[in-house]
Each structure stands twice: as structure tokens, then as C-alpha cells.
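does this look right to u?? FE2/S2 (inorganic) cluster version
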Amino acid sequence: MPIPHLTTEYLLEKACAEAMLFKDEIAVLLRLEDRAEMVKLFQAADSVRKRVHGDAVHLRGIIEFSNRCARQCVYCGLRAPNPELHRYRMEPEEIIEIARQAVALGYKTVVLQSGEDIWYDPEKMCHIIREIKAMDVVITLCMGEKSHEEYRHYREAGADRYLLKHETADPALYASLHPDMQFENRIRCLEWLRELGFQVGSGNMVGIPGQTPEILAEDILLMKRLDVEMAGIGPFIPNADTPLASHPRGNLDMTLKTLATARLLMPGAMLPATTATGTLDPFGRQKALKAGANVVMPNVTPLHYRQHYQIYPDKICLGEEPGDCRDCIQAIIQSLGRTVGTDAGHSPKVISNRPQPRALVRRGSDLGGL
Ligand code: 5AD
Ligand code: FES
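got this back:
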């Protein structure tokens, strides 16, 4: 039975006014089943997105530079114990060259993503970061848990942002999904990244076994507490070569409800319409862009590598050249009456609330227009 005063109208009004809800209130929104009620939630998130971020959708070009991984995340196809995957690792100069092509395609942010692969030691990584930084582009790293010292080296070399999804805010569920990792360490890494002046991204999956709306509410509240600049929210998609092979995929509506509620509670965060959402539904990314999202992360990995970066199966865009992906995304954005962002696409809260990260202060000029 819904609690009588917790009507959708009341909750949306409160969330829009205060950017805060209690856990049980969030869970009520996530349990909405009636289509008209869900649409109200999506529309509220869409109007907060428009008010805070305008109509620009920011693009981030992702380079998947190594699919080698030392970890054993039970949902992920890159996990070390998966013998089915053909493994690759790009040379530093190759990564730099791909970044150059991404910049030539117009990307203002390059995301360097990999499994946890210690072959890329600080010396190699800092060389890669410095060379790419010289192209006057924002650098986001997404390469897992490292030491404080390593993160510091990357920051000093010029990396601006770091994505480290917390995956689930429930410590017991986290432990069951990550046999070789600790929830506390994940959070410690996120705190270090914050202290070091990175713009921090976290995120979670929707539809993992054992998850409840209350746990999803905790995911949103955790990211709000961490005051993240970015939150990647996407559905779980089972991979046949992992222990979660036979678990059902995440639900699109639940993913969109989580995303929309995250937008209400974190108005200034950059929220991607994730690739996993686009894989779950042919119009998944469009639906996400109409439910609070304002970022898309097209793949710029060369095709012969891309097919091997199989975190989950049937990932979209496996056959598209980087230039084609960019054109396709641009058409999608324009079909929604939105525009492709032309600046660095920082979260507005970075500009207004916080001392600016050193790398930005040094360049200075790209803050114009924000
Ligand atoms: N389905 C959906 N998303 C997944 N990820 C990993 N495995 C899966 C899966 N099976 C996501 C995680 C990880 C990111 C790189 O991909 O959130 O952080
Ligand atoms: Fe390493 Fe997923 S198991 S990226």
C-alpha cells in the first residue's frame, strides 16, 4: 500500500524544490508502475535538466585502451577468470594517436577507459596524459582502483576527471559481486579523487541480483553525499561468460526512473545516456536524454579492438567507425531538438562552487561560455 501523503505530485514538488528526498520517498518513485505517473517523473527530470544545463548534450569520446583486467567482478566480461575473451593492450603512442583523431572529430573530452591493468604504470600513463593534454582537451580517466600516489601523479600530469562507479551502495551486495574487492576501499578511492581535485564520477547498475528499490535509493543518496560531478546509471546486461550469465537483464523503466530521480536530487551533475541503456532498447539513449540525461559517450576505439571490449554482449556501435558514431549521435541529439555541446562540458557546479582544478586554471580559456 502506498503511504497516502506520498503522492507523485508531492514527491516531485519536494524533489524539485529541495533537491532532496528521504530514502523511502525515493523508493516510492522507483516503484511507480503507472505509465502516466512515470511520465510525470521523467518530465520533471527533463525540466530540471533544461533549467540547469540547457539543451546542450555533451559528447565524450571513449578510448577502450586495454581489456586486460586483474579483477573478478562477477557481472563483467573483462574479468580476469574469463578465458573466452581475446585480450589486447594498446601501446601508449597508439592511444595518443587515437586521441588525436577524436580531437579532430571535434571531441572536447577524451575518456581513457580500461580494465585494471598494471602494465600502464604511472610513467606510461603520465606520458599519455601529458601528450593528450597538449591537444587542449579535457581528460577523463576510468581505469579502476589505484593508490593515492598514482591518482596524484595522474592529476599532476593533467587529468581532469576520474570515473569510478561504486556499482552498488549496499556493502553486502557489493561484496557478493566483487569477490576480490572491498566497498570501503571503493569509497576511499572516491574520496581521494575528490581531495586531489578531480571532477569525480561514480555510478551504479540497475537490475543486479538482490537489488531492491531501497538499495537503488541508497545509490542515489550515496552519490549525492559524495557530491559527484558525474553519475553513470545503466542497466545490468548478462554476459554468458560470467557467473551472472543466467540472471535477467535490468529493466528499462527502472533504469529511467533511477536516472530521473538522480537528476532531481543532483541537478548539477552530468548524467550520461549510457551505452548499456542504448543496448537494452534501440531508443534507450533517446529515452534517457528525455528523462534527465545530458551527456553521451560515443566510442572512438578502432573497430578491430572494439569487438573485444565485451563487458556485456551485443553492445551497440560495434560496426561503426568513430566518425560514423559521431554523425549518428549528432543526428539523434538534433532529432530531440537538442544541440551538441560546444564547450568543455564541465558540470556547472564545478564552475560555481569549487576552487577550479589546477589543469583548468592553467588553461583558463576554455571556461569561457560556461
Ligand atoms: N552489464 C551492464 N553494465 C556492466 N558493467 C560491467 N558489467 C556490466 C554488465 N554485465 C558496467 C559497470 C562498470 C562499467 C565499465 O560497465 O558499471 O563500471
Ligand atoms: Fe574489470 Fe570489469 S572485471 S573492468
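Confidence is low (pLDDT under 50) at residues 353-370. idk if thats expected tbh
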